[in-house]
Amino acid sequence: MGLLDGKVALITGGARGMGAAHVRLFLEEGARVVFGDVLDEEGKALAEETGAAYVRHDVTSPAEWRRAVGTVTELHGRLDILINNAGILKFRRIEEMSLEDFDRVIGVNLRGTWLGIKSVIDPLRAAGRGSIVNISSIEGYVGAEGLSAYSASKFGVRGITKSAARELARFKIRVNSVHPGAINTPMVTDPDLMNAIDADAFAKSMVIKRFAKPVEVSHVVAFLASDRASYCTGSEFTVDGGLLTGAGY
After folding, report:
1. Which PROSITE patterns match (predicted)?
2. Where is 227: in which H helix or E strand?
3. Phi and psi (nearest 5°) for 205?
């Protein structure tokens, strides 16, 4: 018996990194999975490898949300789970950051999450219950130099999660946020970010002194997506190896 047997899930930003880990684990746990991304080459390769269905999906576009959700219901007849995983990071100090870069980060990370929630209410309500898991970050708790847009977007995801949890509880739809810390994914190896970080100081601030594997986040996401988390909504779950307990962060 898998944790997600019989469930149908839509996962955004699923072509690589943490999203790809979610896709693989959800399939292992018995879910039927459709995942979206704008990285067509990686997305098609993962679909061929795993058997999950891939759809090109720009999360800032309402039309592409309609297409993604429509693909899920056409293939599987229902939708039970949304994982709002798609996200981008742009390291720039406020003085140096363009408005276009700021808007792009907010668009993908915050607008995309809001559109996702809005787009799945009807199919989740039709299914009789559902779970939405929004991927925020520890940057949704603390600000960091050079990450004003990213931090703003991830703080915003926390707020949207709590509002949506209150609005959607009447439909038996749960909404929670997950806040990863130092995860070994392509996004956190951005050259500008790596050049700006004092790696030694960062490592010393960590309680568990290593970067996590993406699947270590996926296990928490799968739990929240499952019926075992039936009394969890509007809550925040950190997966940061104790990073936020460090006074120096």
Report:
1. ADH_SHORT
2. none
3. -75, -10
Tell whether pTM > 0.90.
yes
Tokens of 204: 């010393």
**Residues forming the active site:** 150
- The CATH topology of domain 8-238 is Rossmann fold (3.40.50)
Q: What is the pLDDT of residues 15-50, one digit of tens each?
A: 999 999 999 999 999 999 999 999 999 999 999 999
Residues with Cβ within 8 Å of 215's Cβ and at least 6 positions away in sequence, in order, are: 21, 24, 25
Q: What is the pLDDT of residue 247?
A: 45
Contact in structure between 130 and 164 (CB atoms under 8 Å): no
* Cα 195 from chain centroid (whole Å): 25
The closest alpha carbon to 59, from 77, 36, 76, belongs to: 36
- Each residue of 156-179: b (16+ CB within 10 Å) or e? bbbebbbebbeebeebebbbbbbb
Query: pLDDT tens, 175-227?
Result: 999 999 988 887 665 666 656 566 666 667 788 888 889 999 999 999 999 99
Helix (H/G/I), strand (E/B), else coil: 164: helix
- What contacts 218, CB < 8 A, 6 or more positions away? 18, 21, 22, 24, 25, 26
User: How many helices and strands (H and E) does the chain possess?
Assistant: 9, 7
